[in-house]
Amino acid sequence: MLEVRCLLRSVRFCSSAPFPRHKPSAKLSVRDALGAQNTSGERIKVQGWIRSVRSQKEVLFLHVNDGSSLESLQIVADSSLDSRELTFGSSVEIQGQLVKSPSKRQNVELKAEKIKIIGNCDAKAFPIKYKERHPLEYLRQYPHFRCRTNVLGSILRIRSEATAAIHSFFKDSGFVHIHTPIITSNDSEGAGELFQLEPSGKLKVPEENFFNVPAFLTVSGQLHLEVMSGAFTQVFTFGPTFRAENSQSRRHLAEFYMVEAEISFVNSLQDLMQVIEELFKATAMMVLSNCPEDVELCHKFIAPGQKDRLEHMLKNNFLIISYTEAVEILKQASQNFTFTPEVAAVDLLVPGVGELFGGGLREERYHFLEERLARSGLTEVYQWYLDLRRFGSVPHGGFGMGFERYLQCILGVDNIKDVIPFPRFPHSCLL
Q: Do the Cβ atoms of 289 and 301 come closer than 8 Å?
C-alpha cells in the first residue's frame, strides 16, 4: 500500500497536466468597478463599508463605498445572504459577478455570491446616521468619523486632487520641489506668533537648548527658498506651517498648509502676478475636470452659487493690485492717509476668504539690509542672509498661497476647519 501511494505521488508531481484551479476574483476599487467596460459576468472582489441596506423577501440590496468615489456600488444578493450584522457602517468583502444593471441610475451592479463581514458597526450607537445630512459643525465633534460622510469624503478627495494638480503645475513650469524644514531658528514673518520647541520629560536639559539655539515650528519656508534661489531659478515648497495665533475665526488655523514659490532674475511684480493667476486657474481646472461629482456636491449642498462665481474667476483676468497701487488709491481717497515706505508687494484678496496669495520682490541691496539688521541687533543671527547678497545675488521674488483658503475659495466652504482632515486651533487638538 505504501509503495502504491509513493507511485501515485510521483505521477502527480511529474505530470505535465496542470491541476484545475478556480480563477481568483480580481480585486477592484468601487471607482474602477463603476467604470468597468466589461460587464459580461466577470468575477470580482470589492472591499468597503456599507452605506445602505434594503432587504426584500427574495432580494438583498446593499450599497458599498470604499472612498474611491462619491458614488457607491450596488450589490444585489439572494436574501439567504442577509444577516443582522449587515448594517450601515459595517465593513465587508464581497465576491461576485459584475453585470450590467437594469436600472437607469447605475451602469453596473455586483451580483453577490459571497459576503464576508470584516467589522461590525452598531448603527444605533454610531454618531453618523444613515440618510441624515449632518451640519459641518456637528461633524467637527467627530474627527475620527467625519471622513465617512459624503461631504467630507468629497472635500478630502478634492484636496488630494488639488495637491497633485499643484505639483503638476510646478513640474510642468520647470520648478524644482524643495523640502523646507519644519523645525527652524528663523521667524520669517516677524509677527512673533511662533510655537517654540523644547524637549519633553527626561530629555530636557536645564538652561540648554537642544539645538544650541531657540527652535520653532516654521511659519513660512520663504527664507529657505531664498537660499535655494541662489542655485535654482525656480523653486517651490508645499508643506505644513504653524502660527500660534489665538484666533477662533473661520479663516485661521494653528496648523495649515502653504504653497510657496521663489523665482530668480525677477524684476517686476507682473512676473509674479502672472504665475499666481496661472497657478490658481490651472489647478482649479484640473480639479473640476477630475472631481466633477465631488465639486458639484459641495456647490449644491454647501455653497449654492459658488459654481457661477468660480466660473467667472476662471474666465476673467484677475485684478491683482500691488501694495504701491493700493497706497495710491488710499492716498486719493483720503488726504489724511499716512502711508509706509513703498515696497514691491502684492496680495490676492478673495471675497469671503480674505488674503489668498501674498508675495513680492525681495530686497537685494546689501548695504540697505546690513543697516536694517544692525539697527535691530540681528546682524550675527542673519549674517547668512547678508552672505546671499554678497556672493552671486540676483533680483528675485516669490509668493505664498494658503492651501486651505484655496479650497475654501473654489468650493465655497465657509469655515477653514472643514477643508482639513484634522483641524488644530486654540483650545482644540483632537486626536
A: no
